[in-house]
Amino acid sequence: MKQGFPEGFLWGGATAANQCEGAYKEDGKGLSTADVMTAGEKGVPREITKRIDESKYYPSHQAIDHYHHFKEDIALFAEMGFKCYRFSINWTRIFPNGHEAEPNELGLKHYDDVIDTCLQYGIEPLVTISHFETPLGLLQYNSWQNRRVVDFFLNYAETLLKRYKGKVKYWITFNEINVMSTKPWMAGGIESNDEQDTMTAAFHQLLASAKTVQMAHEIDPQNKVGMMYAGHIAYPNSPDPEDMQMTMDFMHKMLFYCDVQCRGYYPAYKLKEFERKGIELPLHAGDLEDLKNGTVDFLSYSYYLTHVVGKETSLDFQGLNGVKTGYTNPSLDKSDWGWAIDPKGLRYSLNYLYDRYQLPLMIVENGLGAIDTIDENGDIHDSYRIDYLKEHIREMKKAIDIDGIPLIGYTSWGPIDIISASTGEMSKRYGFIYVDVDDNGNGSFKRMKKDSFYWYKKVIESNGEVLE
Predict the structure, then answer these.
(1) Which UniProt keywords apply (predicted)?
(2) Which end of the chain, C or N, has fewer beta carbons within 10 A?
């Protein structure tokens, strides 16, 4: 039996439009929720201003200017040997306010060029339709709390699916959809933390996703549409039965989104919770059938860290990465930003998710945010990043070889330095490619290869066999 990564494995990297493109007003683009989030700093959240305040700095307005550098950047990805590039399309480039009847042709043309550049190098585009950039123009409808936004999204999705038919085969409907339970503004432009509001918005996104899956299959039977889970995985603090129960409760809070998208219905535990809390889903005739008929073809997820949960854990989801459990794992090291480094947890998570859903899996975000320095020779030695990725890839290989997990792709986050979603910082760098921009948006924007660039090239060339 053949061991190792399967032939055709989708090695690559992942970005988000609002974290890399910049050009926030060019070619007819409208404002999104990301465009009104100021820069924070380590441990300090970004401020949401809801309109542009000229006295403040908004990192997404310029980011790394991928909008104008995408050909150069994708050429560098191709030099590493990428088989896949996961990127998002910015909704407000296509429909500036989110609800127009006709799309903005200049926005579509930009992504024509991005996709064609990928295909020119033999890179498979993996397109995220919505990645934390709800149009501000939809706030007049209370954003995803309003069912009309489902139709606006479907118009947007249909536009993309028809325009890029035959060019894009892999799609993700919503980035990290369960972030609606931790950071509702990022997830969908929801200003309230009230659970009725967030669960109404979540239902509308789940419904929009299910309808998009059906539409994608009708437009092109070759389309593969996945969901994306913000990979919150938890261990119990102890074998105390209360800690075990709290861990299960924590995972239920996160995984019900996957349950709906992968199984096609709300799980009993969530429906009972709604009943206890008096939360009502805005169901219309045919909705349950749409959820059932719109299950995804694959499950993709981000993996950065694991949590420890116990009976002292609060489930209000504040703090680190949108989650604060009150516990740390003494067995694990931490990143510069306090995130637990747990390669073995990646194998555990792959098994956990496959046991639950029996769907092909993709890891579409994984990486180390760290402070990089340029030495006197102009080199960037990031052995810490290589070590982090090497150990995670080893655990992926074990999941394939030992556990039989059908893992079809791995797109590291982010292959080029981009602004942080949580803080807007540039100093929290993930890339194989350094971009000369600082936390205030100053710099030459020059691209420079780090040591990890050459290392990842060897990994891809060897289909994951050469990791040293």
Answers:
(1) Glycosidase, Hydrolase
(2) N
Q: What is the dihedral of CA 69, 70, 75, 80, to 10 degrees?
A: 110
Tell me phi and psi for residue 293, to 5 degrees: -85, -5
pLDDT at residue 312 in the model:
85
Q: Pick the catalytic residue: 176, 273, 395, 425?
A: 176
**Active-site residue, 72 included:** no
Q: Which of 200, 90, 207 minimizes the C-alpha distance to 145?
A: 200
Q: Which of 21, 124, 133, 365 is catalytic?
A: 365
Q: Check: CB of residue 357 under 8 Å from CB of residue 258.
A: yes
Neighbouring residues of 262: CB distance < 8 A, sequence distance ≥ 6 = 227, 295, 296, 299, 356, 357, 359
Residue 315 CA from chain centroid, whole number: 22
Question: From the CA atom positions of the chain, what is the Rg in Å?
Answer: 21
Which residues does residue 313 pair with via DSSP β-bridges, in sequence order? none
Query: In this predicted structure, what is the pLDDT of residue 264?
Result: 98
Active site residue 425: no
Question: Which tokens sit at 123?
Answer: 């890179």
**DSSP, residue by residue, 27-96:** GG---BGGGGB---BTTBPPPB-SS--TTS--GGGTTT-HHHHHHHHHHHHHHHT-SEEEEE--HHHHST
Q: Which parts of the chain sit beneath pLDDT 50?
A: none
User: What's the residue count for the chain?
Assistant: 468
Cβ atoms of 234 and 306 closer than 8 Å:
yes
- Give the pLDDT of residue 325: 86
Per CATH, is 10-461 categorized as 1.20.1250.20?
A: no
Nearest to 209 by CA among 302, 293, 87, 89: 293
Q: Using an 8 Å Cβ cutoff, are 134 and 143 in contact?
A: yes
Structure token pair of residue 153: 């999204």
